[in-house]
Design a protein that fits this description.
With 226 residues, the chain is an alpha+beta fold. It folds into two domains: 44 residues, no CATH class; 175 residues, Lipocalin (Beta Barrel), CATH 2.40.128. It contains five helices and eleven strands. The longest helix has 20 residues. The N terminus is likely disordered.
């Protein structure tokens, strides 16, 4: 074969290969949705509320000591937290609920309840008398309305809570916004804020403390009664 026919054959072969490459659907389409360029599936990002709930759940079974770090304005009378040992106990965890009793000295009336919802998270405050019955001002709180982050979630007062505050003559509290922050191994923060009011308690997660006694009303909850 002479040089000219051989060159013609090589050119035709190159053109055919180029045409096949251009018409290859895999090349034209690019990586599919949810897949990387090499065809491997991309990991799906965890919603911030789920990541926060997971971080909170890692504390389950442990208790931690805390202290008030912000209390503005200073209460006119004696604060119920003044001079009292503060201990939070992440006492009960299920796939959808975390219950955190808060001990203020000998007062075991308070439990924070964080629950998954269809749209995010819900925070409620369960308040009990010493005999275990519900306090008139109980089960107040709110739902997340923004994505937040794996470290911080915010809970504005919901409508049921606002109505409760009004009925209990706590009108100043209808604008309450609660927040929780958790950094496993470092700190947990509970926060209450509203115009003219800021209250924050910080708990040291680096060193667990002995678990306190059960909160008031725990037996009623275990038996499924109010």
């Amino acid at each position: 074969m002479t040089t000219a026919p051989r060159l013609t054959v090589l050119i035709l072969a190159s053109l055919a290969a180029l045409s096949a490459c251009r018409s290859n659907p895999a090349t034209d389409a690019g990586p599919s949705s949810g897949a990387s360029a090499n065809g491997m599936a991309r990991p799906t990002a965890m919603p911030a509320t789920d990541a926060f709930f997971r971080n909170l759940s890692t504390l389950c079974g442990h208790a931690y000591a805390g202290r008030v770090i912000v209390d503005r304005p200073t209460p006119a009378g004696l604060s119920p937290f003044e001079g009292k040992a503060l201990v939070m106990h992440v006492r009960e965890c299920t796939p959808d609920t975390v219950r955190i009793p808060l001990m203020v000295g000998d007062d075991r009336s308070r439990t924070w309840i964080v629950t998954r919802t269809a749209t995010g998270l819900r925070l409620k405050h369960d308040h009990r008398r010493q005999d275990g019955t519900e306090d008139p001002l109980t089960m107040y709180g709110g739902d997340t309305v923004k994505a937040g982050s794996a470290k911080r979630q915010v809970f504005p007062a919901d409508e049921q809570t606002k109505a409760l505050f009004v009925s209990e003559q706590r009108n100043v509290s209808v604008t309450n916004v609660w927040a929780m922050e958790v950094e496993p191994g470092e700190r947990f923060i509970y926060e209450l804020s509203r115009p003219g009011r800021m209250f924050r308690v910080e708990f040291d997660l680096s060193e667990p403390v002995p678990a306190p006694p059960p909160p008031w009303g725990w037996r009623q909850l275990e038996n499924g009664t109010p």
